């Protein structure tokens, strides 16, 4: 945040030390054993349960809840991890309110679903807390696979391939593995270093060599990887951030929201992080909400999210929008940025109101802003050599097959990505199974 540190109105240490501890504690307290049993007892254990269909990884939700109800949370965790090896993180960050819990029969009947996410966390935390890994590797196949990108898709793919007996080399350009889970999710959703603890636990299956600080297109060549390995899986995410193309966008205090969140996630002390007195976040997705809420938790006095369409079109769920409002974040819709005003530093940002079709209405307004956070979308920062793009993402067919022989892709970098951890996990897992079948068919 060096840009912001030079900006008047942006300062660190706005709150007392104890306020930071309180503000960045767990968003949802974990269940104890009794609470989990009571919550599990609400499940109807439906035949053809709609919650399973709504889960991108197709976890057998009624089965794992029944296992919790019968006092065997470790068995429940195994049921979860069979389908989603990052089930612990997904229990914390999945928008369950629009997935499994929205589909829950209890939600339709009573307006209060079974708390599937918290029950999943109870099961996975129990097994992981015991230091147990539920899977063992199959005998070595002699096949070697390169996985580029150690985010959710890459980790899920690497784990499944290692479990099936393949040797995996997992590359990532950052100093830590974890991808979005480590660098891109609000700190109050994954406190106490959970992301890295989960990665360490996942890697304990063995057979996965981790190589950090290596980025595709800079330190790694796709051509060299296909020569050196039997298969390649790309899970490179979306490293590029869309530019804000308005006058004044280059001024000090105008930052990428993803970088704001990343720096916060990696900071050893929230009190040293500078935040504006008046913060404006441009965008309507989960990144916008995470950035806005954390700005408030760091001590910003006024935080406003401005989105170009209506609330119903925001990628952030209604629950996330309500969370932001509960923290004092104002949400303005149907407005687009026109200019950032100030001399060298951001002082105000001007917006124009627009219609549902994004046509200007002729009305404009200004907001005080010593810090402007851009959350207007990401894209691949460089096109991998020889691959076809679909829009700004890698085109795939079936379980992650690209147009290049021996190369698969999954997660946010693909045209089928939904920018959700759980979807990325499903794509990494399914690609691994297809890679396995392809390699073993060669004899």
Characterize this entry briefly:
This protein is an alpha/beta fold and 443 residues long. Helix content is 36%, strand content 18%.
| Radius of gyration based on Cα positions | 22 Å
The main sheet orders its strands as 4-3-2-5-19
The rough form would be described as globular
Question: Which stretches are poorly predicted, pLDDT < 50 over at least 5 residues?
Answer: none
The assigned structural class equals alpha/beta
CATH T-level fold name of the largest domain:
FAD/NAD(P)-binding domain
What is the number of strand segments?
A: 19
Structural domain tally: 3
Description:
- It is a single chain.
- Helices cover 36% and strands 18% of the residues.
- By secondary structure, it is α/β, with parallel strands linked by helices.
- It has 3 domains: 33-129, Alpha-helical ferredoxin (Fumarate Reductase Iron-sulfur Protein, Chain B, domain 2); 144-238 and 380-441, 3-Layer(bba) Sandwich (FAD/NAD(P)-binding domain); 241-377, FAD/NAD(P)-binding domain.
- It has a 5-stranded parallel β-sheet with strand order 4-3-2-5-19, sandwiched between helices.
- β9, α16 and β10 form a beta-alpha-beta unit.
- α3 crosses α10.
- The model has no long low-confidence stretch (mean pLDDT 94).
């Amino acid at each position: 945040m060096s840009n912001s540190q030079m900006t008047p109105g942006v300062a660190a240490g706005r709150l007392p030390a104890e306020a930071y501890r309180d503000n960045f504690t767990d968003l949802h307290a974990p269940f104890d054993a009794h609470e989990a049993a009571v919550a599990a007892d609400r499940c109807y254990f439906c035949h053809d349960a709609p919650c399973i269909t709504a889960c991108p990884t197709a976890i057998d939700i009624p089965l794992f809840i029944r296992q919790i109800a019968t006092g065997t949370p470790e068995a429940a965790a195994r049921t979860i991890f069979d389908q989603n090896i990052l089930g612990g993180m997904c229990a914390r960050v999945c928008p369950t309110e629009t997935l499994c819990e929205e589909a829950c029969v209890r939600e339709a009947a009573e307006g209060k679903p079974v708390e599937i996410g918290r029950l999943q966390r109870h099961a996975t935390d129990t097994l992981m807390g015991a230091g147990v890994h539920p899977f063992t590797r199959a005998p070595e196949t002699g096949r070697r696979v390169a996985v580029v990108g150690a985010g959710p898709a890459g980790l899920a793919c690497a784990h499944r391939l290692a479990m099936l007996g393949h040797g995996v080399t997992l590359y990532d350009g950052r100093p830590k593995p974890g991808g979005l889970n480590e660098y891109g999710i609000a700190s109050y959703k994954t406190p106490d270093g959970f992301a890295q603890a989960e990665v360490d636990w996942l890697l304990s299956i063995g057979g996965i060599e981790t190589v950090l600080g290596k980025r595709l297109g800079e330190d790694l060549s796709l051509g060299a990887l296909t020569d050196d390995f039997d298969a390649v899986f790309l899970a490179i995410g979306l490293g590029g951030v869309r530019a804000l193309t308005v006058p004044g966008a280059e001024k000090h205090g105008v930052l990428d929201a993803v970088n704001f969140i990343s720096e916060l996630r990696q900071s050893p002390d929230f009190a040293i992080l500078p935040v504006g007195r008046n913060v404006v976040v441009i965008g309507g997705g989960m990144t916008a909400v995470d950035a806005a809420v954390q700005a408030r938790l760091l001590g910003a006095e006024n935080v406003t999210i401005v989105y170009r369409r209506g609330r119903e079109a925001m990628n952030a769920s209604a629950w996330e929008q309500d969370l932001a409002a509960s923290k004092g974040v104002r949400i303005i819709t149907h407005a687009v940025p026109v200019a950032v005003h100030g001399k060298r530093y951001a002082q105000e940002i001007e917006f124009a109101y627009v219609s549902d079709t994004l046509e200007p209405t002729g009305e404009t307004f200004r907001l005080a802003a010593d810090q402007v956070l851009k959350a207007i979308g990401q894209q691949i920062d460089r096109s991998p050599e020889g691959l076809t793009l679909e829009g700004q993402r890698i085109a795939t067919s079936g379980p992650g097959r690209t147009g290049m022989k021996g190369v698969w892709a999954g997660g946010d970098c693909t045209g089928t990505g939904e920018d959700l951890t759980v979807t990325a996990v499903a794509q990494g897992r399914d690609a691994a199974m297809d890679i396995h079948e392809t390699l073993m068919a060669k004899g």
